[in-house]
Amino acid sequence: NFMLTQPHSVSESPGKTVTISCTRSSGSIASNFVQWYQQRPGSSPTTVISENNERPSGVPDRFSGSIDSSSNSASLTISGLKTEDEADYYCQSYDVTNRVVFGGGTKLTVL
Amino acid sequence: EVQLVESGGGLVKPGGSLRLSCTVSGFTFSDYTMTWVRQAPGKRLEWVSSISSVTTNIYNADSLRGRFTVSRDNAKNSLYLQMNSLRAEDTAIYYCAKNKYDILTEPIFDYWGQGILVTVSS
What is the 8-class DSSP label of residue A91? Predict the structure, then answer.
């Protein structure tokens, strides 16, 4: 099985842009879709990006996703940061045996 | 509006059993694979189990070693998780999640329930 590694925390100011990385330990990041979930304090997760770069309806276009095969990582970019974006963000993918893997989560602080 | 509502959680002693339910509305339940995900206090999300639409295929996390069994009743729009031989480390919030597709090989989640707390303690 593989692991997905995220930075423990990131912080940025309102109005700025932040990027959260998610690095796959083995196997190609491009082999399986990557999803991103937002979890505000005390709430359940919500999907902000699926299938590497698809935004579900209702998710602002300030949120975007990408993958980079050279670094074997996925990224979630949030532009025009708002205080409401403050949350934990988890990446997720899966392996050839269809077992689901979540990253450790990144705490985004908007200060 | 898609809704997933978990129930059945609570306090249980080590070695005990508990059955969680997830009742859904707002979509055709029988058309989608469903999944259980848990989150221990202060920890990352952890996949538990997934079941295809017509129950022919089930995938479980290896770490559970057969203690948990997922099932569903499409007539009742309900998903279940039978948890046996519970341990302290099973203490977590348990979420049911709707898979975006009815394809077990593409575990992508688009909707989540509010979660239900299971506490295993003597």
Answer: E
